[in-house]
Every structure is written in C-alpha cells, then in structure tokens.
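Lecture notes, unit on protein representations.

Consider one protein chain, 73 amino acids long.
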Amino acid sequence: MDQSTIRLYDENSGKLAALYEKADMSIAHNLLVGFLPENASVLEIGCSSGRDAAFLIANGYNVTALSAWDSNY
C-alpha cells in the first residue's frame, strides 16, 4: 500500500470505520448464508473491523478472520 493511502486511512480511520459499520449488509449476508452449508468453516481475508465475521459467528459458522494489519498475515 502506498504512503498516501496509509495516511488517508490513518487520518480518517474513525470516520471510515463508522461508515463501514453502518452499511446495510442484509442482502449480502442473506446471499452468503444461502451458499454456505450449516456450521461451515469460513476464512475471511481482509476482515477489517470484523463486521462480517461477527455476523457469520452469530449464525453458527466457524470463522477465522485476518486483516492486513494482523502481524501474522
């Protein structure tokens, strides 16, 4: 990632996170669970705040979530 992009995220992380969390994901989430078998294991790469991973966990899925900022990524 280039430095200007990193700076943008660093300076606006609160605003960006709020917008990300506020987005209505109900259609995408419903489509996703329609394709996944019950109790499936899911690997989410680029999980950001963990919004989608949290949804999947709440719906019975086994989730491993990684973000670009994870030290083990």
